[in-house]
Design a protein that fits this description.
mainly alpha, 3 helices
Length: 65
Amino acid sequence: MSEEAPIGLTIMEKLMGLIIILIGAITFYVTYTNMASTGPLLTFFLAVGLVLVVLGIVIVIVKAE
């Protein structure tokens, strides 16, 4: 038996994925443009931004069950 996910759940899942992409992109951009002020944590914040973008893309692409 195949049951469809509720439409509200699907919409919120995609919306949360887009919000996570936006937060990751902003984190990456701000860190990249202010490299001197982040000091030794530059790579950490860039990696966190990229991970959030990738996670958001995965959430948007994956089909809800």
